[in-house]
Amino acid sequence: MFGELTEKLNSIFKHLKGRGKLNKKNIEEALKAIRRALLEADVNYRVTKKFVNQVKERAVGQEVLKSITPGQMVVKIVHDELISLLGQETKDIKMASQPPTIIMMVGLQGSGKTTMAGKLARYFKSKGKLPFMIAGDVYRPAAIDQLQILGKSIDVPVFTISGSKNVVKICQKGIADARRQGRNIVFIDTAGRLHIDEKMMDEVSRVKKAVNPHEILFVADGMTGQDAVNTAREFNRHLEFDGVCLTKLDGDARGGAALSIAQVTKKPIKYIGVGERLDAIELFHPDRMASRILGMGDIVSLVEKTQQGIDEEKARKLEKKLRKAEFTFEDFLEQLEQIKNMGPLNQLLGMIPGFNTAMAKGLQVDEKAFSPIEAIIQSMTLEERCRPHVINGSRRKRIARGSGTTVQQVNQLLRQFEEMKKMMKRLNKLSPNKLSRLGLPF
C-alpha cells in the first residue's frame, strides 16, 4: 500500500533534511519532486496542484526558514496537508435512531461490492451488531450465490427471492424480513455494470427512493486509480452517496485513488479493504494513513490489531511458561495461530515506525513458510509436543511422512526450538534491572 509513493517521498525528505538551512529555491525544488511523485502515483492533476500550492504557501514562510530543523518542519507541513487531503476526520457509518440501519452498496461490476458487503457485515457483527444482507444483484451470474456463501461463512442471514428480477420488491421485502428478525443493520448488495449507463443509474435511483437508505456507500477498486475517481464523480452526481469504501488497497503500490477520491467527491473514505480475507477491512483514519504514506508507521492500528488477535489470558499464561522455560510446541502452535489472526505480516511490518519500503524489499516475508512448521507440529503426538526430547529417529521419520516434509526439516525445527528454550533460560538468569534495560517484560 503506497509503497512507491512512500519510497519517493522519503528520498525527497532525506535530501531536504540533509541541508542545514533551507531557502525558497531548495524548498521549491523539493515541491517539484513531490508534485512529480504524486502524479506518478496516479493522483488527480487538480488535486496534486492544489496540494502542492498549499504546502508551498506554508513551507516558504518564515516559520520554516527560521526553524532549527527546517527539513523536519517541511515534513510536518506535508503530513498535515496529507491528512487534510484524505478527509481530515475519521467518519464511520451513522447508526439510525430507529433500527435497522439500511446501508446501500453501489459501484461498478468487479469493484468488490459483494465482498465488501460481507466484510462490513462481519465487522459489525464483531462489534455486537446483528447484520443482515440482501442480494439485490440479480444480473451478474453467481452474485446471489457468492453473497449466500459469504453469509454462511460469517453466520449472517442473506435475503433472496428466487427467480425475481424486481430489485425494488426484493429490497423492500428483505428489509421487512430483517425487521421481523430483529436485525439492526442491513447491507443491500446492488447490481453493477462494466461502465456507467442510464439503465443502471435508474435502477439504483429507484431502489434509493423505495427503501430510503440511511447511507449509500460507493465501492471503488483502489487499483484502478483515476478510473475509480471518475466513476465516483459520476455516481455522486446521480446518487449523492454518503461515503466511499476502497477495495484492493493492499495490491496498489501507488495509492492515487485514495489520495484523490475524497477531494474530488467531497465525500469521506469510510472503510478500506486491505486483503482477500473477510477480516481484512479497516476503518479509514486520515491521520494514520498520512503517517503510513510518509513512512512514519501506524502504531495505533498495530496495537489495535494486536489486541484483536491476541488473547490476554493466554498471553499471561505464556509469559509464566517463558519465565520457567516451559514453553512447548503446543504453545508454539497456538502463537502461530494468533499471529496469523492479526493479518498479513507485510502489513503489520508497514505499521512499525521507521520500517520503510526499502526495508520491506530486502525482507521477503513468506507466510507460506508457516505451513510446513504447522504441519510438522500437527503430525506430533500430544506427548511429543509437550516433551520434544522423546522424539527419536523413528519418530522423526514418522513425523516427516505425516507432515509431507523431510527429516532434515523436522531436525531443523527441533534444533531451533531447543535454541530458543536455552536463550529463555539464559535471559531468566539475568537480574530484573538487566532485563528491563533489554526491554523485556519479565
How far apart, in Å, are the first and last alpha carbons? 36 Å
The fold-level CATH name of the largest domain is Rossmann fold
Major beta sheet, strand line-up: 3-2-4-1-5-6-7-8
**Helix proportion:** 55-70%
- Which ranges are low-confidence, i.e. pLDDT below 50, for 5 or more consecutive residues? 357-363, 434-442
Mean pLDDT: 80
Global morphology: flat
CATH homologous superfamily heading of the largest domain: P-loop containing nucleotide triphosphate hydrolases
Q: Structural class per helix/strand content?
A: alpha/beta
The major sheet is characterized as: 8 strands, mixed
What distinguishing features does this structure have?
442 residues, alpha/beta, Four Helix Bundle (Hemerythrin (Met), subunit A), Rossmann fold, 434 Repressor (Amino-terminal Domain), 3 domains, 8-stranded mixed beta sheet, 22 helices, 8 strands, 58% helix, flat, disordered C terminus
Task: Explain the overall architecture.
- This protein has 442 residues and is α/β, with parallel strands linked by helices.
- It has 22 helices and 8 strands.
- The chain folds into 3 domains: 3-85, SRP54, nucleotide-binding domain (Four Helix Bundle (Hemerythrin (Met), subunit A), Up-down Bundle), CATH 1.20.120; 101-295, Rossmann fold (3-Layer(aba) Sandwich); 303-438, Signal recognition particle, SRP54 subunit, M-domain (434 Repressor (Amino-terminal Domain), Orthogonal Bundle).
- It is 58% helix and 9% strand.
- The longest helix is centred in the last third of the chain and has 22 residues, at 407-428.
